[in-house]
Amino acid sequence: MSNQSILEIRHVTKHFGGVTAVNDCSLALEPGRIFGLIGPNGSGKTTLFNLLNGIEPCDAGEIRFKGERIDGLPPHQIARRGMGRTFQIIRVFPEMNALENLLVVARGDWDAASRRALDLLAFVKLDRLKREYAGNLSYGQQKLLEFVRVLMTDPELILLDEPAAGINRTLLNDLLEAIRDLRAQGKTVFIVEHDMKVVMELSEKVFVLDHGEKIAEGPPGVIQADERVIEAYFGR
Amino acid sequence: MKPLAWGIGLGILAGLAIMPFFVTSYIVTFTIQIFMWIALAGSWNLISGFTGYVSFGHVAFFGTGAYTAAILILKAGWPWFPAGLAGSVTAAALALIIGYPCLRLRGPYFAIAMLGLNEVVRALVSYFEDLTGGGSGISLPPILSLQPVYYAMGGVALAVFSLTYLIITSRFGLRLLSIREDELAAEVMGIPTARLKLYAFLLSAAGPGIAGGFYAWYASHIEPLGTFPLLTTITMIIMCLFGGKGTVLGPVVGASLLSIFQELVWARFLFVHQAIFGALIVGVVLLMPKGILGVLQERYRLPRTI
């Protein structure tokens, strides 16, 4: 199993002062599938993402990406190995236009990158706004821009931190379609999402965190019926 | 539009090139000052306007260049021109030493660290008397003609301006802007922010180093207090903000207009000119924080490359 995993987390722990945000967490993602990560507020989901792409160092444990250890590497090196992410709170480049937001993260040939950027903008229906500053776009548009920005880097594993939050129903269907499309291209997707419907609909496997510990993992149907999960969300 | 812009640019350059033959030495002196401020404000723009790392110690690179040139001229017998150019080497070396640790500091901490750097360099210059002449400074032979300095300083201004244009039209420049916009997001998207910031910082130190080197020759006397004044850093910041930070023409416009304005006000209102100047700055920061070019770009949807 460990040889086939694109991402493997072993006994990872992270403290902030006296708070244990992630506690002895282990999980593995097989390539080419969609995974969900859920848990009540403050359960350590975003912190776990931050550990994965190197924004925060781990206190203990190890992280392997495509078989190689990546804990301790700076974020840009992890990104260049093929891990991309979006943020829960939007982090587009506000005073750069939509097109520049995509071009700036591109690698390799400039003309190819320009064509790809225009395609991606058209895909999320932002092609008419390509010269508009990202900061002037609506919340939902910024969210979509951030989503296609990570696609510009052509990652093999994509971490999406609440991609559906604040996106209207019509756009949401496009977004879900796009995420499934990524899977069809052989990419691995790892999603943190509060909208249970979205997570359960998309994911093939769901991990549940509570107080920084993994309390369950399994297919959506099993997770929804799991007593520990229900308890974590609703209390005993 | 493009041929027109080139035409206007080349016209201005040609005008400036022949100007010293037709005007008084007062005008030549004044234009040398403007050239120097264009080079300084434009260099500050490279690190602070592009990456958002506000340097409050940029005059340290100017002073380092000035002392490098003065020492090379006086002690090593170098001609003034290569000695001035050598100022960029020591200034960039200083930027490398200080930038490596300090560019990890964010926001006000970087600004304060740079402020401290300037004081440290000034203290060191005063301390090593054998080399620098200590508090009384270094005197060089007086210059015989203003014209070589005019062309040399104009060359520095043009070089900084051209470098800014090359950077902003490049992928490197776009990446510097992403650091200003959201450094963490840039890093997570695979942009090696630490390395790019350091490159920008080295480039931003080289221009002031050369300008300082030529200034030492031009002023023919330098001493620590007059070579490392905080006011010089503040002036370059104000000029860049006034013209428009993160733009190509902003520092040029800001340095030119403020120099002219200051000269006019100073001549007419000897006693209140500082107050008038200060009020203007407050007004600019409050009413158009993006500067003249920033406002023009927004209103007329002009490309970033002006």
Report what the structure shows.
The complex is a heterodimer of chains A (236) and B (306). Chain A is globular, with a radius of gyration of 18 Å. Chain A is an alpha/beta fold. Chain A starts with 6 loop residues before the first strand and ends with a helix. Chain A has helices spanning 45-52, 75-80, 98-103, 110-123, 139-152, 169-184, 196-202, 220-225, 227-234, and strands spanning 7-16, 19-29, 34-38, 60-65, 68-69, 83-85, 157-161, 188-192, 205-210, 213-218. Chain A contains 9 helices and 10 strands. In chain A, helix 4 (110-123) runs antiparallel to helix 5 (139-152). In chain A, strand 9 (205-210) and strand 10 (213-218) form a beta hairpin. In chain A, strands 6-7-8-3-9-10 form a 6-stranded mixed beta sheet, with helices on both faces. Chain A has a 4-stranded antiparallel beta sheet with strand order 2-1-4-5, covered by helices on one side. Chain A has one domain: 3-Layer(aba) Sandwich (Rossmann fold), CATH 3.40.50. Chain B is mainly α and 306 residues long. Chain B has a domain at 29-230. In chain B, 77% of the residues lie in helices and 1% in strands. Chain B is built from 14 helices and 2 strands. In chain B, strands 1-2 form a two-stranded antiparallel ribbon. In chain B, helix 2 (25-51) runs antiparallel to helix 9 (193-219) and helix 8 packs across helix 9. The longest helix of chain B has 27 residues, at 25-51. Classes of the chains: A alpha/beta (236), B mainly alpha (306).
CA radius of gyration of chain B is 19 Å
How much helical structure, as a percent, in the residues of chain A? 25-40%
How many helices of chain B? 14
The strand line-up of the biggest sheet of chain B is: 1-2
CATH architecture designation of chain A:
3-Layer(aba) Sandwich
Count of strand segments of chain B: 2
Tell me the number of structural domains of chain A: 1
| Beta strand % of chain B | under 5%
Query: What is the terminal separation of chain B in angstroms?
Result: 12 Å
Specify the overall morphology of chain B. globular
β-sheet strand percentage of chain A:
25-35%
Number of helices of chain A: 9
Oligomer kind: heterodimer
At CATH level 3, the topology of chain A is Rossmann fold
Shape summary of chain A: globular
Q: Find the structural class of chain B using helix and strand composition.
A: mainly alpha
Order of helices and strands of chain B: HHHHHHEHHHEHHHHH
CATH class of chain A: Alpha Beta
The percentage helix of chain B is over 70%
Mean pLDDT score of chain B: 92
